[in-house]
Amino acid sequence: MKNPEVFAGYEAFDFTAGPWTRRVWSKGSGPAVIIMHEMPNLHPQVLRFADRVAAQGMTVYCPSLFGEDGRKPSKAYTMGQMLWSICVRREFNVWANGKSSPIVEWLRALARKAHADCGGRGVGAVGMCFTGGFALAMMTEPAVVAPVLSQPSLPLGRKGAARIDANDEEIACAKRRFEQEDLSMMALRFPSDSFVPDERFAMLKDTFGERCVTVELGDADANPDAPIAPHSVLTWHLIDEPGSATHQVEQDVIAFFKARTGA
């Protein structure tokens, strides 16, 4: 593990469900929020967001899904992890075949544990990039009440542009729960981001209507010092200054978690 200082105040434990065991980093008190990191790893910018959620009276659970915990990623490291996950790792489904990733079952089990441990009205969940759609697929777990999809990038390729990485049953369950339980979701992106095509957000709006709060930011709202083109709404491209559009989105997401979980 690199940069152990970014895990100050966190406790780590290994969680097993089904065939998978993953390390989980936890911090805070109050209702739970599961924060699923983006490619290529659980890096310091993701933990900065987790720290701010915890500071607002919630317990964050940060599962380590791929890559080296705490490492500040380079472009080469990011590409290597992406190729490894696409070509080798079977717990992730990256293509448009109408399925969610198998690891979502493990994440649902983690949500059940988090809710049992922390209480509240339910569990928040945010996915980013590669994990963006996981928060929606997790809605078949009754404990999950506040899904946020930040730059949901799967499935890859034009064939899957108008799809999300959740199957029909998972989407129908989420839609039903939103209506019956008066819930909603948030979806975030930069429209210039080729990993999150227009068709995907149009599908979310068409499927969920007013229950899907979409946030679309201009390139001018992105941190110009980020190492990649506008993509990571809550991490690399956050302009960490009051009054910036991305800072406001961060605050809105945290407020969404607080309201839904009862923090």
Would you write up a description of this structure?
There is one protein chain. The chain has 263 residues and is an alpha/beta fold. The protein has one domain: 3-Layer(aba) Sandwich (Rossmann fold), CATH 3.40.50.1820. The protein contains 7 helices and 8 strands; from the N terminus they run βββαβααβαβαβαβα. It has helices at residues 44-55, 75-87, 103-118, 134-137, 168-180, 198-208, 245-261; strands at 11-17, 20-28, 32-36, 59-63, 123-128, 144-150, 185-189, 212-216. It has an 8-stranded mixed sheet with strand order 1-2-4-3-5-6-7-8, with helices on both faces. Helix 5 (168-180) links the parallel strand 6 and strand 7 (185-189).
Short description:
By secondary structure, this protein is an alpha/beta fold. Helices cover 33% and strands 19% of the residues.
Q: Which short descriptors sum up this protein?
A:
Rossmann fold, eight-stranded mixed sheet, alpha/beta, 263 residues, 8 strands, 33% helix
Percent of residues in helical segments? 25-40%
> Per CATH, which architecture?
3-Layer(aba) Sandwich
Please tell me the total number of domains.
Answer: 1
Taking all Cα atoms into account, the compactness measure Rg is 17 Å
The CATH class is identified as Alpha Beta
> Which residues sit in consecutive blocks of at least 5 with pLDDT less than 50?
none
Give the spatial strand order of the biggest sheet.
1-2-4-3-5-6-7-8
N-to-C CA distance = 31 Å
**CATH superfamily label:** Alpha/Beta hydrolase fold, catalytic domain
Shape estimate:
globular
Question: What is the ordering of alpha helices and beta strands?
Answer: EEEHEHHEHEHEHEH
